[in-house]
């Protein structure tokens, strides 16, 4: 198998494994490959993203692939976004990921999540989600902010400020409610908000 094809197959296997790991309802690899719209949206994004980066002349084709995937899956991922490995989008419907969004490895998004902008100015205007972030159903993360590694965003939260690593953010507007304690024998009361 050519090296490039081997990388594609390996990435697809990682995506299926992430879905199986994060969704207790996943019955088999075949079920995930054939019936999971989040997986289909991510795979379509990867093709569109490759075209988007290759040439400005191919960007309309990349957008067309993105829009077709949106129509088929209910998930809109701009081909200019940057998605890390093993992203899992559970259920998928209504997820929107903006052009300058950056998503790290092992991130999980539930349905209805928006990674949107708050300005029409050019440049970075969408959020960055670091590795291991989980975003609950209906949450809106808006603007050029960073959600720290391992953070959890509650369902329907509206996040407009940075969230530290290992924190839990809930509410409208979202507030950090808890930051995980690294060493249970050294509890610092200042880390609880």
From TrEMBL:
Xref: SUPFAM superfamilies: Trimeric LpxA-like enzymes
Organism: Salana multivorans
NADP found in the keyword field: no
Primary localization class, coarse: cytoplasm
Catalytic activity: L-serine + acetyl-CoA = O-acetyl-L-serine + CoA
Gene Ontology terms for molecular function: serine O-acetyltransferase activity
PANTHER family: SERINE ACETYLTRANSFERASE
Locations listed in the record: Cytoplasm
GO terms (BP aspect): cysteine biosynthetic process from serine
Protein name stated in the entry: Serine acetyltransferase
Cellular compartments per GO CC: cytoplasm
Record's keyword terms, sorted: Acyltransferase, Amino-acid biosynthesis, Cysteine biosynthesis, Cytoplasm, Repeat, Transferase
Pathway the protein acts in: Amino-acid biosynthesis; L-cysteine biosynthesis; L-cysteine from L-serine: step 1/2
Pfam families for this protein: Hexapep
E.C. no: 2.3.1.30
Family classification: Belongs to the transferase hexapeptide repeat family.
């Amino acid at each position: 198998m050519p090296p490039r094809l081997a990388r594609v197959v390996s990435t697809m296997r990682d995506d299926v494994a992430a879905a199986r790991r994060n969704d207790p309802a996943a019955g088999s690899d075949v079920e995930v490959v054939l019936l999971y719209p989040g997986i289909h949206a991510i795979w379509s994004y990867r093709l569109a993203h490759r075209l988007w980066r290759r040439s400005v002349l191919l960007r309309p084709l990349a957008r067309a692939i993105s829009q077709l995937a949106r129509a088929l899956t209910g998930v809109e991922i701009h081909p200019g976004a940057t998605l890390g490995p093993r992203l899992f989008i559970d259920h998928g419907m209504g997820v929107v990921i903006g052009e300058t969004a950056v998503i790290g490895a092992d991130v999980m998004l539930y349905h209805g999540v928006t990674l949107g902008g708050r300005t029409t100015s050019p440049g970075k205007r969408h959020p960055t989600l670091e590795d291991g972030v989980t975003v609950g159903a209906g949450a809106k993360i808006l603007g050029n902010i960073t959600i720290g590694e391992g953070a959890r965003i509650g369902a329907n939260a509206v996040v407009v400020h940075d969230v530290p690593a290992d924190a839990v953010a809930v509410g409208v507007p979202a507030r950090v409610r808890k930051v995980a304690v690294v060493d249970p024998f050294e509890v610092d009361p200042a880390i609880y908000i």
